[in-house]
Amino acid sequence: MQQEKERAMINEMVAKLTTVCWDKCITGTPGSKFSSSEQTCLQNCARRYLDMSALIMKRFQNMQ
Amino acid sequence: MDSFSSPSSGSSSQFNSDAFKDQLKNQLAQAYAEEFLETLRSKCFDKCITKPGSSLSGSESSCVSRCMDRYVEATGIISRALFSGPPH
Q1: Which of A63, B17, B43, B44 could be stapled to B67 by a disulfide with Cβ–Cβ 3.0 to 4.6 Å?
Q2: Residue B23 belongs to domain spanning
Q3: Is ipTM over 0.95?
Q4: Between chains, do A30 and B28 touch, taking CB under 8 Å as contact?
Protein backbone atom coordinates (compact mmCIF):
# COMPACT_ATOMS: atom_id res chain seq x y z
CA MET A 1 0.00 0.00 0.00
CA GLN A 2 2.79 2.34 0.94
CA GLN A 3 4.56 1.57 -2.32
CA GLU A 4 1.43 2.39 -4.25
CA LYS A 5 1.20 5.73 -2.46
CA GLU A 6 4.79 6.56 -3.33
CA ARG A 7 4.31 5.50 -6.91
CA ALA A 8 1.23 7.69 -7.14
CA MET A 9 3.08 10.68 -5.68
CA ILE A 10 5.92 10.21 -8.13
CA ASN A 11 3.51 10.01 -11.06
CA GLU A 12 1.79 13.18 -9.85
CA MET A 13 5.09 15.01 -9.65
CA VAL A 14 6.28 13.90 -13.08
CA ALA A 15 2.94 14.85 -14.63
CA LYS A 16 2.93 18.28 -13.01
CA LEU A 17 6.54 19.04 -13.87
CA THR A 18 6.02 17.96 -17.45
CA THR A 19 3.17 20.43 -17.96
CA VAL A 20 5.17 23.25 -16.39
CA CYS A 21 8.41 22.47 -18.24
CA TRP A 22 6.61 21.95 -21.54
CA ASP A 23 5.28 25.49 -21.29
CA LYS A 24 8.70 26.87 -20.42
CA CYS A 25 10.75 24.96 -22.97
CA ILE A 26 8.63 24.13 -26.01
CA THR A 27 7.88 27.58 -27.30
CA GLY A 28 7.18 26.94 -30.98
CA THR A 29 5.09 24.45 -32.93
CA PRO A 30 5.95 20.85 -32.00
CA GLY A 31 8.36 19.29 -34.50
CA SER A 32 9.03 15.68 -35.44
CA LYS A 33 11.70 15.56 -32.77
CA PHE A 34 13.04 17.80 -30.03
CA SER A 35 16.01 20.00 -30.74
CA SER A 36 18.91 19.42 -28.39
CA SER A 37 18.25 22.79 -26.75
CA GLU A 38 14.65 21.76 -26.08
CA GLN A 39 15.84 18.48 -24.56
CA THR A 40 18.40 20.23 -22.41
CA CYS A 41 15.82 22.78 -21.33
CA LEU A 42 13.43 20.02 -20.22
CA GLN A 43 16.16 18.27 -18.22
CA ASN A 44 17.36 21.49 -16.66
CA CYS A 45 13.82 22.48 -15.85
CA ALA A 46 13.16 19.33 -13.84
CA ARG A 47 16.46 19.50 -11.97
CA ARG A 48 16.29 23.21 -11.20
CA TYR A 49 12.79 22.68 -9.88
CA LEU A 50 14.21 20.19 -7.39
CA ASP A 51 17.01 22.60 -6.46
CA MET A 52 14.50 25.37 -5.92
CA SER A 53 12.33 23.06 -3.84
CA ALA A 54 15.27 22.21 -1.57
CA LEU A 55 16.12 25.90 -1.26
CA ILE A 56 12.59 26.76 -0.27
CA MET A 57 12.53 24.05 2.39
CA LYS A 58 15.81 25.26 3.81
CA ARG A 59 14.77 28.93 3.95
CA PHE A 60 11.36 28.02 5.28
CA GLN A 61 12.92 26.12 8.15
CA ASN A 62 15.01 29.19 8.97
CA MET A 63 11.84 31.26 9.13
CA GLN A 64 10.38 29.10 11.90
CA MET B 1 -22.64 -3.46 -13.28
CA ASP B 2 -21.77 -3.37 -9.62
CA SER B 3 -18.02 -3.03 -9.53
CA PHE B 4 -17.92 -3.37 -5.78
CA SER B 5 -19.60 -6.75 -5.44
CA SER B 6 -17.54 -9.25 -3.48
CA PRO B 7 -16.38 -12.47 -5.19
CA SER B 8 -18.93 -15.26 -4.97
CA SER B 9 -16.37 -17.98 -4.26
CA GLY B 10 -14.27 -18.29 -1.12
CA SER B 11 -14.93 -16.75 2.27
CA SER B 12 -17.64 -14.21 1.61
CA SER B 13 -17.51 -13.04 5.21
CA GLN B 14 -13.93 -11.78 4.71
CA PHE B 15 -13.14 -8.59 2.84
CA ASN B 16 -10.94 -9.61 -0.11
CA SER B 17 -8.10 -7.14 0.10
CA ASP B 18 -6.33 -8.39 -3.03
CA ALA B 19 -9.37 -7.72 -5.16
CA PHE B 20 -9.68 -4.33 -3.50
CA LYS B 21 -6.05 -3.48 -4.19
CA ASP B 22 -6.39 -4.49 -7.83
CA GLN B 23 -9.50 -2.39 -8.18
CA LEU B 24 -7.73 0.56 -6.58
CA LYS B 25 -4.79 0.17 -8.96
CA ASN B 26 -7.11 0.03 -11.95
CA GLN B 27 -9.03 3.09 -10.89
CA LEU B 28 -5.81 4.97 -10.23
CA ALA B 29 -4.48 4.00 -13.66
CA GLN B 30 -7.71 5.11 -15.26
CA ALA B 31 -7.63 8.43 -13.42
CA TYR B 32 -4.08 9.04 -14.62
CA ALA B 33 -4.99 8.16 -18.18
CA GLU B 34 -7.86 10.66 -18.10
CA GLU B 35 -5.70 13.36 -16.58
CA PHE B 36 -3.02 12.71 -19.19
CA LEU B 37 -5.55 12.90 -22.00
CA GLU B 38 -6.90 16.19 -20.69
CA THR B 39 -3.37 17.60 -20.56
CA LEU B 40 -2.73 16.46 -24.13
CA ARG B 41 -5.92 18.12 -25.32
CA SER B 42 -5.05 21.35 -23.59
CA LYS B 43 -1.39 21.57 -24.66
CA CYS B 44 -1.92 20.47 -28.23
CA PHE B 45 -4.90 22.73 -28.77
CA ASP B 46 -2.79 25.66 -27.59
CA LYS B 47 0.12 24.77 -29.86
CA CYS B 48 -1.64 23.55 -32.95
CA ILE B 49 -5.06 25.13 -33.32
CA THR B 50 -4.06 28.75 -33.20
CA LYS B 51 -6.77 30.11 -35.48
CA PRO B 52 -9.76 27.77 -35.45
CA GLY B 53 -11.22 27.37 -38.92
CA SER B 54 -14.30 25.63 -40.24
CA SER B 55 -12.55 22.23 -40.03
CA LEU B 56 -9.25 20.72 -38.92
CA SER B 57 -6.65 21.20 -41.63
CA GLY B 58 -4.10 18.55 -42.55
CA SER B 59 -1.32 20.60 -41.00
CA GLU B 60 -3.31 21.03 -37.79
CA SER B 61 -3.85 17.26 -37.65
CA SER B 62 -0.17 16.44 -38.19
CA CYS B 63 0.75 19.08 -35.64
CA VAL B 64 -1.50 17.38 -33.08
CA SER B 65 0.08 14.04 -33.90
CA ARG B 66 3.59 15.40 -33.43
CA CYS B 67 2.50 17.25 -30.32
CA MET B 68 1.28 14.02 -28.71
CA ASP B 69 4.54 12.24 -29.56
CA ARG B 70 6.61 15.11 -28.21
CA TYR B 71 4.59 15.36 -25.04
CA VAL B 72 5.03 11.67 -24.31
CA GLU B 73 8.74 12.08 -25.01
CA ALA B 74 8.89 15.09 -22.68
CA THR B 75 7.32 13.02 -19.91
CA GLY B 76 10.11 10.47 -20.32
CA ILE B 77 12.82 13.14 -20.33
CA ILE B 78 11.45 14.73 -17.14
CA SER B 79 11.04 11.36 -15.45
CA ARG B 80 14.62 10.35 -16.20
CA ALA B 81 16.01 13.77 -15.28
CA LEU B 82 14.33 13.54 -11.88
CA PHE B 83 15.43 10.04 -11.05
CA SER B 84 18.73 9.39 -12.71
CA GLY B 85 20.45 12.74 -12.91
CA PRO B 86 23.71 13.79 -11.32
CA PRO B 87 23.45 14.26 -7.54
CA HIS B 88 22.87 17.86 -6.40
Answers
A1: B44
A2: 17-83
A3: no
A4: no
